[in-house]
Amino acid sequence: MKKIKHDIADVKLAPKGKLRIEWAEGNMPVLRLIREQFKKTKPLKGINLSCCLHVTTETANLMITLKAAGANAALCASNPLSTQDDVAASLVKDHGIPVFARFDEDKKTYYRHIHQTLDFKPHITMDDGADLVSTLHSERKELLDGIIGGTEETTTGVIRLKAMAADKALKYPIIAVNDSKTKHFFDNRYGTGQSTIDGILRATNALIAGSNVIVAGYGWCGRGFAMRAQGMGGHVIVTEVDPTKAIEAVMDGFRVMPMSEAVKVGDIFVTLTGDINVIRMEHFNKMKDGAIVCNSGHFNVELDLKSLEKNKKKKRAVRDFVEEYTLKNGRRINILGEGRLINLAAAEGHPAMVMDMSFANQALAAEYMVKSASKLKKQVYIVPEKIDNNIAALKLKSMGVRIDKLTPEQKKYLASWEMGT
């Protein structure tokens, strides 16, 4: 093995990781097509990338694609509980890609790994939650002059970055990969929907059918999870602060009520908002004995775990990824995966088939940034529609699906005002 900088759990795990990466690749045909093109054109030749992403089999295929494009890419974890140690080992041993990530690393190690990834002096950042960009702007300002742009994968990260741009604190352009249609329509809805259910079931083996499932937040992730929980027989209740999203949930057939009321009847609670303290101590105190609580938003701050810690009578681990808190009123609350992303803490994250489109966006957004950065201002941009549509077309082709094309007459009609009715 060629000596490269890294900090991983055990390089001996590489053989297992290699097989799992190959399995994921089989379900990522769009990214595979892009990789073959990148091998020929080398659009990222000489470009340093610092990537802060979930270290999974799907991410591994993105990293291999970036390397095929000529990039010098280093990777750290965007969540302490999302790292798959065998995948990290294979990236280091089999592909010579620097990885700084260990499953269940503490906060100090997490940020040390971010700094080690930034030590590669990036021209482009690739972020999932904006911790990399935040650290860069606050503690590694000396590197900012060398950066031409970045990408962001999550709703939470885009919110943070748009706030930075509004305050004129953002020092380089960012492409919001999360906001592309082929990302949030599919990754957030179908990926989060399925993988959140998967994480809950692996952690608890709970029966969804007949359970009152409380969904906090009805954005694309919330929609996806609500749909899947309903499909498994769950009685879904949505909590929202946005009246438009709330009425959409009602029209989709779900009950909508404030969290203060939902906590009295809920069996399983999932937060998917991107905001802080969505479930607070006032809510925990009113929950049923044995309630299951988890988070599928990017950060565990959606649950007020600090207050829960302060007000617990006792705490114990009852299963893998399940901590039982006994409150002073005698009721027990089961917190899954330390409040972190349950789909990655207790399961494997999104299926490769849906991440195929998300990471196709990342790869093509990096290429676009190299070509267009000089024309872009220090703000957050969406993925160009041409790229978005191209990814959708490639995905349809890989699935053997054909669609109609506009006739010349139809194109003319849509582009004119003279033809009338």
Would you identify the regions where 5 or more consecutive residues have pLDDT less than 50? none
Rg, Cα atoms, Å: 22 Å
Shape: globular
How many strand segments?
A: 15
Q: What is the assigned CATH homologous superfamily of the largest domain? A: Adenosylhomocysteinase-like
Strand order in the sheet with the most strands: 9-8-7-10-11-14-13-12
| CATH C-level class of the largest domain | Alpha Beta
Oligomer: single chain
CATH topology annotation of the largest domain: Rossmann fold
Helix content: 40-55%
Counting structural domains, the number is 2
Give the N-to-C terminal Cα separation.
Answer: 69 Å
The overall pLDDT average reads: 96
Annotation field: number of helices: 17
Largest sheet: 8 strands, mixed
Look at the helices and sheets and give the structural class.
alpha/beta
